[in-house]
Write a structure and sequence with these properties.
By secondary structure, this protein is of the alpha+beta class. It has helices at residues 83-90, 104-108, 110-121, 125-144, 154-165, 172-179, 183-194, 198-214, 222-228, 234-245, 249-255, and strands at 5-13, 19-23, 29-34, 39-42, 51-54, 56-59, 66-70, 74-81, 101-103. The two termini are 35 Å apart. Mean pLDDT is 90; it is low at 257-262.
Length: 262
């Protein structure tokens, strides 16, 4: 399952001020199953995107953050899938879900309903892991028997691995040359599979690295974050951060009360 699932995360947050959490873009496709009230999510932050309620939701790779509205508490389980996992578990390339939020039962059918019900009934995190492993393996097995699920091109999978390993700090043209493809051909194939171009995906990876550094227990100064995560300078970081979150880094840090970073 490690090829398909990057991580499981259980969260139970209570007693915080109501607000809007910025769910940042990352290298994985995220599915969230609420164990309390339905999630209220918009596909953009501060841009007028409509808010939709989901009991459980799956999303593709994003070129911007999603806005998660909350009343000071959230409880649920987050599953991070690799692009290979999109084909194996959902039965479709990640590109079909790019920039989209879809009810999980539309992606998994009856398995999605069963997954939410059994996670809600489970009383411990260990029990929830067991449920996730069992049902996602069933989804993989179901897909393996379907003619609709074709394999990802190995060159695209390798390009994805190299970009992730370098945290986006690699030249796309160099990756293409090492794979024996032109940059244009790699870009077309990569976007057709993941929904983002390799250049955009590399930007997401650099941003993700910077985001991880700033949400650490002892966050670094912004200039150091920019240098370590591969930006040309702090101004470059600010431009990307503003594009991906809809907020400047400073405004984002003050607003992220749900994560305790404000």
């Amino acid at each position: 399952m490690r090829r398909y699932v990057d991580s499981y995360v259980s969260f139970d947050l209570r007693g915080l001020p109501a607000g809007v959490h910025c769910g940042p873009p990352s290298r994985v496709l995220t599915a969230v199953i609420s164990l309390s009230d339905p999630l209220e999510v918009a596909a953009g932050v501060g841009d007028g995107s409509p808010v939709t309620r989901f009991g459980s939701v799956g999303g593709g790779l994003m070129g911007r953050s999603v806005a998660i509205h909350h009343d000071g508490r959230q409880q649920g389980v987050k599953v991070a899938l690799t692009p290979l996992g999109a084909r194996a578990i959902y039965g479709m390339p990640a590109a079909v879900l790019a920039h989209r939020l879809v009810p999980l039962d539309e992606l998994l059918g009856a398995l999605g309903v069963e997954l939410a019900d059994r996670l809600l009934a489970a009383s411990t995190w260990a029990a929830r892991i067991t449920v996730l492993d069992e049902l996602l393996l069933r989804a993989v097995g179901r897909g393996a028997c379907s003619d609709r699920v074709l394999r990802m091109r190995p060159e695209v999978a390798e390009a994805w691995r190299r970009l992730v390993a370098a945290r986006g700090c690699v030249q796309v043209g160099a990756v293409a040359a090492e794979l024996g493809w032109s940059r244009r051909h790699l870009t077309e194939r990569f976007r057709g599979e993941l929904g983002l171009s390799p250049k955009t995906f590399a930007r997401v990876l650099r941003f993700e690295h910077a985001h991880d550094l700033t949400t650490a227990r002892d966050p670094l100064p912004w200039a150091d974050v920019a240098t370590i995560s591969g930006y040309a300078d702090q101004a470059h970081l600010v431009r990307d951060w503003s594009e991906f979150t809809g907020r400047t880094p400073t405004a984002w840090r003050h607003s992220e009360v749900l994560l305790g970073t404000g």
